[in-house]
Amino acid sequence: MKYHIWTEGCQMNVADSQRVASALERLGYQPASEAQHADVIVLNTCVVRQSAEDKAVGRLSSLKPLKSANPNLTINLMGCMVGVKGHEALTERFPYVDVFSPPSDPGPLLAYLTQDESKQMELAALAERFDLQDEALPLPLYERNSLVTAHVPVVLGCSHACTFCIIPYKRGVERSRAVGDIVAEVRSLVRQGVKEITLLGQIVDRYGKDIPDGPNLAALLRILHDEVEGLERLRFLTSHPNWMTGDLLDTVADLPRVMPHIEVPVQAGDDSVLENMKRGYTNAQYRALVGRIRATIPDVSIATDIIVGFPGETEAQFQQTYDLLEDLRLDVAHLARYSTRPGTVAERRMTDDLTEEEKKRRFQMLEDQQERIVGEINQKFLGETVEVLFEEKVKGRWRGRTPNMKLVFVESEQDLRGRVLPVQVTWTGPWSMQARLLPQHADAPAPLEFVSIQ
Questions:
Q1: Distance between CA atoms of 62 and 126, rounded to whole angstroms?
Q2: For residue 32, what are the CA distances in angstroms to 69, 72, 307?
Q3: 1.20.1290.10, 3.40.50.12160, 1.10.1740.10, 3.50.50.60: which CATH number matches 2-129?
Q4: Where along the chain do its domains lie?
Q5: d(Cα 450, Cα 454) in Å, to the nearest integer?
Q6: Who contacts 165 (Cβ-Cβ below 8 Å, separation ≥6)?
Q7: Is the peptide bond before 402 cis (omega within 30 degrees of 0)?
Q8: Pairing between strand 2-7 and 40-45?
Q9: Which CATH architecture has domain 385-441?
Q10: Residue 441, pLDDT score
Q11: What residues contact 87, with CB distance under 8 A and at least 6 apart?
């Protein structure tokens, strides 16, 4: 029996797919690289943009002939396309789908696959050893002994309904996972060779707000930093400006294994647009936050998110966004063109009044701007020595990242996977850098040791 998982969207979906794969393998399924060779196909979907939803629909439609040719094939639609509020309309639209699963929930698929008595016994044995929602499962076969960086969800759902965002409607209210479950999962991943963990949440710096007398994100970082032996690096994303506290910034600055990289979306630079988005801060307040981050954390890099073409955004308001990015010179700007999401406040109360051509023009302006700014930022690394955690070999070169998330490529015949090594930067561009190993690290390092969890 074989399974195939197709994943679209954010890092949360990647983590969800990993958990589903692990659970399926505990039931005896093996990974298949192609959908046509699988007995179970899982589509883990994203609908945060119309383009992502269109891609999911196209992929799902392409599976219909496979189902017609093999009625025993199990097709599972999962993720934000399903959501947490029912899937009746999807059942009518896609009658050949067997199972509909909400985000982060492998339960419906596993229940469907274990309907007969023998399979129920297998699932009961699995559930006795691993809580499928909250405990650590072994890595899936296709990542075992090779995964260097992993994502661990710590906050599920979101209760801050920005007017443009569909996530609260699809992933439900904010729920923080228990500290013990998170620590157990991180320890399990580290035992299996993972060196870097990124803690995930739609608003990750709200971790613990829903747990009476529970720890906040700063406390969670300290626990993981101090108690998980073998963990090289810790990161977290994505933050919200309103919840980026001084305590959290001090924690990042104090703990050497928490990396100096902060993702804190601004979305727009104009105060009126920010108010219409229901973001809860102003241009000036965001600028002040960036100043505090840089004053607190040495050598920090900062990433942001931008939406262009929000309903009613004028040319002058867009210019405010352009000027903000020009002044702050952030290391990363994830850009997106606004698209209407059904059910959101923006869809119900606002008119999507900009043409796609105008959205593309504004998008391109910001992309060109960031290419120039980041190119200038990265040029300062030329000739410098930086530490890189190497993740994998791509087209003959090892790729890895610096503490502040700069992408670096190194040519080497050695096995560098999972190693943290100093390198000298020999070339810089806006999106990546090239480097060479220092002479004292020219000899092949000792092989990595991985622990298999059966």
A1: 33
A2: 18, 16, 37
A3: 3.40.50.12160
A4: 2-129, 385-441
A5: 13
A6: 48, 158, 341, 344
A7: no
A8: parallel
A9: Beta Barrel (2.40)
A10: 72
A11: 77, 100
Q: How far apart are CA 334 and CA 265, in angstroms?
A: 9
Tokens describing residue 303 = 């990433």
A 10 A CB-CB count for 364 gives 12
For residue 37, give both structure tokens.
């060779």
Q: What is the pLDDT of residue 24?
A: 92
pLDDT at 451: 44
Cα separation, 271 vs 273, whole angstroms = 5
Low-confidence ranges of the chain (pLDDT < 50): 127-135, 444-454
- The Cα–Cα gap between 418 and 195 comes to 6
For residues 302 and 324, the answer to whether their CB atoms sit within 8 Å is no
Alpha-helical regions (H) of 380-448: none
What percent of the chain shows pLDDT beyond 90?
Answer: 83
Integer Cα distance of 90 and 81 in angstroms:
9
Q: What is the largest CA-CA distance in the chain?
A: 66
φ, ψ of residue 258 in degrees (nearest 5): -95, 120
What is the pTM for the complete model shown?
A: 0.90
